[in-house]
Amino acid sequence: MQFLRKKVLIIASNMIDMGDAEKHDARNNLWEVAPPYHIFVSHGFEVDFVSPNGGKVEFMMDPLGISSYTIKYEGFMDKANNTFTPRTIEPSNYWGVYIGGDYGPLFDVANNKELQSIIAKIYESGGILGGGGHGAGAFANVVLSTGEFLVKGKKIAGFPNSTEKSKSWAKQGSLLPFLVESQLNKNGAIAQNKHTLKDKHEVVIDQRIVSTMFLPSAAIVAKEMIILNK
């Protein structure tokens, strides 16, 4: 479905750490946001950034490869340093919305009623939703106007429990408000993981939701969103 306004909305987190004594990192993952941004911009789409509080959002990971390119030549940091607040966003201006990880979105996007409503309105108007890594957790709780969860009955790839529980990044997931795979399944999704997918970097497409478990395929999510928009 082609919209008259060629705009994409990227939702990012304002979080810095998880609020624990050791201050485990909860910033956005540059490699799950910058490559998709590059894909959208290089295909002629305008991109807006929004965050729960607006203003600057911060990233983990060094700017390498295409991330470095989009920062230097495509105005990525200008957008990331000046994100919109939810109340300034008009959902009808966007044909798609994308959310990457890392952990931040689980803390302040997944429970933000305004952002959850924006996602629902874009999707229900025929828009396309994309998620990378922990990004799927940010829309796992979105409720549609029907009262049902947006993810219900849809195959969605998000950061899997098996990986979360084996890593120290969030103390085996114990610092998180929820585990992405568990929350997706709880709300009726058919969560994909390393057992259900032949390739752990596969991009899953189901009913205008495009998702992947890990960062290497974030740019492909954006490209598949564009293909669906034609």
Description:
- By secondary structure, the chain is α/β, with parallel strands linked by helices.
- It is built from nine helices and ten strands.
- The chain has helices at residues 30-42, 66-73, 76-80, 104-108, 113-124, 135-139, 161-164, 180-186, 218-229; strands at residues 7-11, 28-29, 46-50, 59-60, 96-99, 128-132, 155-157, 190-192, 203-206, 209-212.
- A six-stranded mixed beta sheet has the order 3-1-5-6-10-9, with helices on both faces.
- Helix 1 runs parallel beside helix 9 (218-229).
- The mean pLDDT is 96.
Shape: globular
Taking strands numbered 1, 2, ... along the chain, how are they ordered across the largest sheet? 3-1-5-6-10-9
Number of helices: 9
**What is the CA-CA span between the terminal residues?**
6 Å
How confident overall, as mean pLDDT? 96
What is the structural class? alpha/beta
Oligomer: single chain
Percent of residues in β-strands: 15-25%
Instruction: Point out poorly predicted stretches.
Output: none
Q: Give a quick account of the main beta sheet: strands, pairing sense, barrel closure.
A: 6 strands, mixed
In total, the number of strands is: 10
Helix share, percent:
25-40%
SSE run = EEHEEHHEHHEHEHHEEEH
Rg estimate, integer Å: 16 Å
